[in-house]
């Protein structure tokens, strides 16, 4: 297969512009390049492109990307074209080894094993063998954890901190309040995590519990209930139960805080619109709203408007979560990934999602196999993780 050769133009959404489409060329400007997995069209097979290897400046790190974790956003982008300009390098969660540091880097040195959520420009993306990223998007992997384990955390722990503080407007103070003897005034306030078995749901339960929110309700398939109770849920419900709406309402009348970790128009927004009726109640929906799911045969459909996607009661405050804006919080920008997430992992507060390793003889095969498995919706609750750079790369 022909290799694509691309040059990178920066954009906040991480799209790249393709030049010399589908041609095999020698590099005319002597810039170093490395392989990246790219989308070339909606639902088309992925391809490998050679993209420029960027030298780190300022507070940047150049990282050999060894592992990534697939997320539903890969499918939203590859199949649904969500926020994509093809060809695009996907992937925003990576684990790897620091190769080089920019002159102003504070926290890292070459050789450090790191993990993080980095997404803003093409050179930061995970599905390429070398990434160049701001150091604030990385943390050191604590000893005792593999890269496969660590790489399940970054996207969705950041999502939880952003969602809870920005969209639910509930505090997650650092250091944790109990360390300074400040009780959580919301300790008994019911918070519903719709989709507790999702990666986001599991991290939401663990993080909220650690900060002293004890009245956590969640929905998930029944076989996950015992585990979800162990990691923080007080009440569990099966979302397929015909009575799920009345059961949740009876357990938490006047419910005021919800995180919808699923964002399915029929599977989560519709029941939530029946459950939540208190004026001022906040429902944070992880966008996109999925109107129609991607399958092996069908293209997906999405909406970015959570309010318009269900018949909400008057006065319910419905918010569409956009974690890509978490750096608007200057404290989180500096501290969340460099310090808070690694500390929580090291202390055992947050346990990595269970992983399933996606095999394949080449980078392209592994990336394609991962995408195919995302379409099949594995019910195990395991995170798909796969190797990016080979040992010998
Ligand atoms: N906008 C943002 O900032 C942002 C950030 C992160 C993620 N997201 C989005 O959030 C969604 C979840 O991401 P994720 O990585 O956490 O997902 P995930 O781990 O892939 O979620 C899979 C789980 O979803 C559960 N599920 C499916 N349908 C459900 C329903 N109707 N009700 C309750 N649970 C259901 C299944 O649980 P069972 O096994 O219990 O059936 C399944 O195990 C994705 O659409 C993602 O793109 C958005």
Structural overview:
Helix content is 24%, strand content 23%. The chain has helices at residues 72-78, 147-150, 154-167, 199-210, 225-230, 244-251, 265-275, 330-346, 363-376, and strands at 4-5, 33-39, 47-52, 60-69, 88-89, 93-101, 113-117, 130-134, 138-140, 191-194, 216-219, 235-237, 257-260, 282-286, 289-292, 301-303, 317-321, 355-357, 383-387. The chain starts with a strand and ends in a 6-residue tail after the last strand. It has 393 residues and is an alpha/beta fold. It is globular. The chain contains nine helices and 19 strands. The structure holds NADP nicotinamide-adenine-dinucleotide phosphate. NADP nicotinamide-adenine-dinucleotide phosphate (NAP) binds at residues 71-73, 76, 155-156, 159, 194-195, 197-200, 219-221, 224, 239, 261-264, 267-268, 286-287, 321-323, 379, 381.
Pairing-aware structural class of the strands and helices?
A: alpha/beta
Q: Which superfamily, in CATH terms, is the homologous superfamily of the largest domain? A: Medium-chain alcohol dehydrogenases, catalytic domain
How many H/I helices? 9
CATH class of the largest domain: Alpha Beta
* Count of domain modules: 2
| Main pleated sheet | 7 strands, mixed
Low-pLDDT runs? 1-28
* Oligomeric organization of the protein chains: single chain
Pfam family, one: ADH_zinc_N
InterPro entries: ADH-like_C, ADH-like_N, ER, GroES-like_sf, NAD(P)-bd_dom_sf, Trans-enoyl_RdTase-like
Keywords: Oxidoreductase
Domain Enoyl reductase (ER): 41-385
